[in-house]
Amino acid sequence: EDFLTLIFKAMMKDTLNSSHPVSSAVQSSEQIEEMFDTLSYVKGASLLSMLKHYLTKDVFQAGIEVYLHNHNYGTAQSDDLWDSMNEITNGTLDVKKMMKTWIVHKGFPLVTVVRKGKIISVQQEKFLYRVEPENWTSDASYLWHIPLTYITNRCNFTHCINAYLLDQKSGT
User: What are the transmembrane regions (predicted)?
Assistant: First the structure.
């Protein structure tokens, strides 16, 4: 419950146009300090949780183990974690490409789902809680690679989870 409260507070901050990406280039020590705020930590934790759910717990754990083994007693960059995950997925999913869309964009997407018979349509756009006119910039080019999971009536809740990666503005 406490984690959900933190997530919702971070999401409220992230909906503002004055938000910042989880990862960006910095030029000074002051900028480094500004990057390590609640938004970065909570959004980062949420993104890792999303990735673990999409990859499955075992695949995610294996990727973490590869990452820790490859970088023990050394330094690492965010791409190193994604590269470790790519190593485990054997090229079946470009984790780096997917996660970059989440860490370099500020904010998060709003996904609209419409069902017409057996056809499900999904569409993404950047979610803004309120527009701050003095800080507003167009984010129309934002595109996330959104892992969506779903269960059909042919499955129960413990088996047969299907996955779809929405990597376009819309899909069916």
Answer: none
- pTM for the model: 0.81
Look at residues 122, 108, 117 and name the one whose alpha carbon lies nearest to residue 150: 122
The answer to whether 13 touches 127, Cβ cutoff 8 Å, is: no
Strand blocks (E) in 100-145:
109-116, 119-126
Q: Which residues pair with 114 in a beta bridge?
A: 121
Strands (E), the chain: 109-116, 119-126, 146-150, 162-166, 170-171
Run of H or E including 164: strand 162-166
Hey, what domains does the chain have and what are their CATH numbers?
3-104 (1.10.390.10), 109-171 (2.60.40.1910)
pLDDT tens readout for residues 123-138: 999 887 766 555 555 5
pLDDT in tens, 18-44: 777 787 676 777 777 667 777 888 888
The beta-strand segments (E) located in 37-161 are 109-116, 119-126, 146-150
